Amino acid sequence: MQKILKISQQTAWQILGKIVTSLSTFIVLGLVARNYGEAGTGVYTLAVTYFAIFFIFADFGFNAYVLKKIQGKDLKIQSVEFEKLLGTRLLWGSTLFLIALGIVWFLPFATHEFAKAVIFGSSAIIVYGVFVTCNLIFQSKLKYELSAAATSVGALSWLFIITWFIALKLSVPFLVLSHLLGWLVIIFVALTFMKKLIQTLTPQFNLTYTKRLFKNSWPIAATLVLNVIYFRADAFILSYYKGISDTGIYNVAYQIFQSVLVLPTFIMNSFYPMMLISLKTKLNQFQKQIKLAALGLLLISLFLALILYSLSHVIIGLITGAGFSGSVISLQILSFSIPAYFLSSLFMWVMIAKKMYKKTIFVYALALFFNIFLNLIFIPHYSYIAASWITGVSEYLILGLQVVILWRR
Predict the structure, then answer these.
(1) 8 A C-beta contact, residue 385 and residue 246
(2) In whole angstroms, what is the distance from residue 310 CA to residue 315 CA?
(3) Among 256, 283, 235, which residue's Cα sits nearest to residue 47?
(4) Which of 11, 25, 101, 401 is the most exposed place for a label (fewest CB within 10 A)?
(5) C-alpha distance from residue 191 to each of 76, 86, 179, 195, 354 (Å)
(6) Sign of CA dihedral 260, 266, 267, 269
(7) Which pLDDT score, from 0 to 100, does residue 60 have?
(8) How far apart are the C-alpha atoms of 185 and 170, rounded to whole Å?
């Protein structure tokens, strides 16, 4: 019972932070949609999606690996690990920053506005890496209220800046610049909190440590990268075949859908450290915890799916005003896949905790191939409607494979 209360408390802090960031995101989305139309919304959301892929690369599963090493260790060990991880993330984030800038000119769907937006906002990849490193300590100490506070202050700052930019009638790339400025506020607040939790914030650039970290983290990283590419490949395929306006319609629905999907992530952020302890000590307790978590996630997801489906037209209308009727249909279709996303999030981390890396990578690689194959066939004919249905079908495929693998195990 105490563990459930602790998980609930930490999840509640994350949800509170997400409520603030989601409200800011929806207000921004509404402002962009009302002032820049479907095309402008398409450019803005596509740029943010582009950065999200690099954010996953910046993460690279380092936290999940390092968390096992520092869990239950003294402050000195935690501080040293943080410094080395911070140095690695700064180097890796800088590399990804250069890659993001370099490849944008060769993307078949890249317009001049999109490329300019990427130039303005790519530094956020480095900044995000610093914040994720701070989250390692917040997670290990179950201090997600500090992470939530940092993201909330950053989101409100971003909302203020982008509202100012829109009032000045600046172009879409400047809106993406406000995104970067918001992230800078987030890491300033996060690092301020970190001073109270560990001994020093000075990054250590240790090449041996970095090589070992990549070597041990790549299975988790491969899973996360495959997950996010299959998760958002449809937006880029859609922009290539159907144009930036259809992408804007789809991404409006997807932004709302995606805000719901953070809930299982928050739950697993709190549950994963405890799950590791149970797996090492009490296998029967571990199995009971997984069953209870699966039941809870299923019930929550069914409730949220029903709410989202029923209120899709209201939510889209409040955010965009008019002209995005296709987003309502897309959001209703996407809502059917919520249960699959909730349960697959749990089972993915169960497989990682059990070190079933090859099988996890196989599941997501197969889903990626399946997803891209179907999108290439159906998007040219059915646009964002096809993308919406294929998103759900792909996630149910992942869930089915996970269940079969874990049941056999």
Answers:
(1) no
(2) 10
(3) 235
(4) 101
(5) 18, 12, 19, 6, 33
(6) positive
(7) 80
(8) 21
Buried b / exposed e across 220-250, counting CB within 10 Å, b at 16+?
bbbbbbbbbbbbbbbbbbbbbbbbbbbbbbb
Helix 312-320 and helix 283-310, axial crossing angle in degrees, nearest 10: 70
Report the amino acid identity of residue 342. F
In 3-state terms, what secondary structure has residue 79?
A: helix
Tell me what pLDDT residue 227 has.
Answer: 73
Residues 234 and 118: beta-carbon distance below 8 Å: no
Evaluated on CA atoms 56, 269, 180, 241, the torsion sign reads positive
Of residues 340, 337, 345, the one with CA closest to residue 392: 337
pTM for the predicted model, two decimal places = 0.73
Would you give the DSSP letter of residue 142?
Answer: T
How is residue 244 written in tokens?
A: 């930036």
Nearest-angstrom CA–CA distance, 274 and 260: 24
Q: Which of 55, 25, 18, 38 is nearest to 330 (CA)?
A: 38
Measured distance CA(195)–CA(137) in Å, rounded: 11
Structure tokens at 247: 């992408």
Measured CA to CA, the distance from residue 263 to residue 267 in angstroms comes to 6
Q: With contact defined as beta carbons under 8 Å apart, do 237 and 48 qualify?
A: no
The residue count of the chain comes to 409
Count of beta carbons in the 10 Å neighbourhood of residue 134: 24
Q: Which amino acid is at 228?
A: V
Alpha helices in 141-206 (DSSP H): 144-167, 172-194
Q: Is 142 left (phi over 0), alpha (psi -120 to 50) or beta?
A: left
The pair of structure tokens assigned to 82 is: 């943080």
**Lookup result for tokens 């921004």:** 28
Helix (H) / strand (E) containing 274? helix 244-281
Over the range 64-80, which residues count as b (16 or more CB within 10 Å of their CB) and which as e? Answer: bbbbeebeeeeeeebbb
Which residues lie below 8 Å from residue 379, measured CB to CB, with a gap of 6+?
A: 234, 237, 238, 241, 242, 386, 387
Rounded Cα distance between 376 and 359, Å, is 26
Instruction: Name the DSSP class of 311.
Output: T
Q: Read off the tokens for 402.
A: 């996970």
